[in-house]
Amino acid sequence: xxxxxxxxxxxxxxxxxxxxxxxxxxxxxxxxxxxxxxxxxxxxxxxxxxxxxxxxxxxxxxxxxxxxxxxxxxxxxxxxxxxxxxxxxxxxx
Length: 93
What we know:
93 residues; alpha+beta; two-stranded parallel ribbon; 2 strands
């Protein structure tokens, strides 16, 4: 996914990312620090990520998310990470 995002950014696309909720905080921290050369575009600028969404592609709708996932500490404070809800957020924003 990262290589595809870089190519899209090189072409001028706005980059939005969906990442697995349990690693969302880790990904955000890494992004703040920067990924060095891995983030560098052809023009020498750094790839910018406009928005990061929590996304668990195992669940198509909120109703499919089992209670043990909803109550899991790694998903604490997150909602709308199923495909349908995440797509609606992207469309809305």
